[in-house]
Design goal:
8 strands, alpha/beta
Length: 214
Amino acid sequence: MTNDVREYWDNAAATFDEAADHGLLDPSVRAAWSRMLMPLLPVHRATVADLGCGTGSLSVLLGEAGYEVTGLDVAPLMIAAARQKALAAGLTSTFVVGDASAPDLPPSSFDVVLGRHVLWALPDPAAALGRWIALLRPEGLLLLIEGHWDTGAGLAAQETLALVRRHGRDATVVRLVEPEFWGREITDERYLVSSRGSVDRGHANATTDTQRTR
């Protein structure tokens, strides 16, 4: 990540949480993300790496549910906001400044790796994804919340699936179409790709695509 990227996100930190899905300040939006994520996560106290965590809204959501969360972001002001948010919630979550393209975190030490609207923005998503997968324990869960927005930016679901399959993993897509996730109606493509454990490359093309309904 370049200094320009770091500066851009530092400048965005002060107003970042104003977007409903960033700050999760609306209880109904926060509840929607909780209902979507919690059934996917391990039931035991698990370790989670939240890469590109921004101001730490999802990190805090998971921390309050009992997960041991490490949040990483390239922008120091985003990390400062995340630390304050966790402190206010009475959590001991860890937040570090770092590059999501090559996170300096212990390999094979996380039960879950989570990235929300991060992979699409990295200079080499395939290489970054390989490094993210290396952080997981053998049966670890990869959660990628991505989109292909009306602006033309982002990754289509099939592109993200192809990236995951390139690393020999199966995956499932859930379309996140409801306004409750975003605080408004949307017309672009937004989704979650989940992938648990590794599979033989010969079977890596089998995917499931579902649309989440109310």
